[in-house]
Amino acid sequence: MNTPFRVALDAMGGDHAPANEIAGALHATQLLARDGIEHLVVLVGEPVRIQRELSRNGSTPSTIAIEAAPDIVAMDDDPASVVRTKPDSSLVRGLELVRLNRADAFVSAGNTGAVLSAATLMLGRIPGVIRPTIGAFFPTSNGTPCLVLDVGANAEVKPQYLYQFALMGSLYTEYIGGIEHPRVGLLNIGEEATKGTDTVRQAYELLRNSTINFIGNVEGRDIFRGVANVVVCDGFTGNVVLKFAESIMPMLKAVLERYSRRNLVTRIAVGLLAPILRRALRDFDYQTYGGVPLLGVRGIVIIGHGKSSPLAISNMIRRAWEMYRLRLGDQIEHALMQQAPMQKPA
Predict the structure, then answer these.
(1) DSSP per residue, 164-215
(2) Dihedral (C-alpha) 154, 160, 166, 172: value to the nearest 10 degrees?
(3) CB neighbours (10 Å) of residue 147?
(4) What DSSP string describes 111-136?
(5) If 0-12 CB within 10 Å is exposed, 13-18 middle and 19+ buried, where does residue 226 land?
(6) Which residues, including other chains, have CB under 8 Å from residue 137's CB and lie 6 or more apart?
(7) 160 in Cβ contact with 344 (< 8 Å)
(8) Confidence band of 283 (pLDDT split at 50, 70, 90)
């Protein structure tokens, strides 16, 4: 690359900001530098707090810069009004850097709804995209994560939305995940083409007649089985599935802890199994995937969990770099142009 990759990081977004954000940024710069990638991480937020945190971590590398933003978007702020009510927030200022081409990507572990709303408003949609979508990665029994989308951006959908979610998710999985011809499934209450709502049945026909590697309807149990590489659904259903999946690991830990308290034998048994279980359940840790992509906007936006650790932040920056390197937005726009005749008006 002739110019360095520039990523704007919302240093004030997240439950443990700015400490985790800055530690993650420093870790990411080390990894990018190790791989010979020219880059600049712009920490957007309150300069005094950012500088104080940087000082705690030792000397600041030249690949770190600070962009002043005195305001903060809280988790309970109204997403629809953030751009208007908090224009000087780290979230809005960070997206502004992307809009003005002063950054190539934006990364945030802050208010998900606010990032979605502000990014769509400020950056606009990729030509041809009806609705941007948020995806999330789910671990599977075969070791290859499954991308489920939408997981909260669009509670109500039309058949064309689901078709575009499938197209964008397929491209993301192919280019970023390295999976050729990813298998795409439509989440439903049964495998038969006649099952589901009118919206789902119409989406089935759109997908069946497209060039997407559509394998048909899949059920909730198929996600963890890895039947499909990409699963599409409305945002209401997807968010319920996501929150349920997030509860599995804490529940298993609680069950094992309760079981270990029965007697000495069970305590020893659980102790012996603990290292194996930790390795087996590692894929359930959100840190592994870092953040999720906001697909369909004119720019690279990665959204992370509010509790994102430094490792998760670092992985989010790395994921942004991969999207930038592979020009995923251009790939989506080209694919939509190629398949435009199949789409009906929204």
Answers:
(1) HHHHHHHHHHHHTT--SS--EEEE-SSSSTT-S-HHHHHHHHHHHTSSS-EE
(2) -80
(3) 29
(4) -HHHHHHHHHHHH-BPTT-SS-EEEE
(5) middle
(6) 145, 146, 147, 148, 289, 292
(7) yes
(8) low
- Taking alpha carbons only, the member of 168, 177, 112, 188 closest to residue 138 is 177
Q: What gap in Å lies between CA 111 and CA 305, rounded to an integer?
A: 9
Token representation of residue 184: 């795409």
Write down the mean pLDDT value for the chain. Answer: 89
Tokens of 43: 């920490």
Q: Which helix (H) or strand (E) holds 239?
A: helix 235-246
The pTM of the full predicted model, rounded to 2 decimals, is: 0.86
Backbone angles phi, psi at 253, to 5 degrees: -60, -45
Looking at per-residue pLDDT, the higher value among 161 and 247 belongs to 161
**Distances from the Cα of 253 to the Cαs of 145, 147, 149, 247, 277, in angstroms?**
22, 25, 27, 10, 10
pLDDT (average), residues 116-136: 93
**3-class secondary-structure state, position 253:** helix
pLDDT at position 57: 87
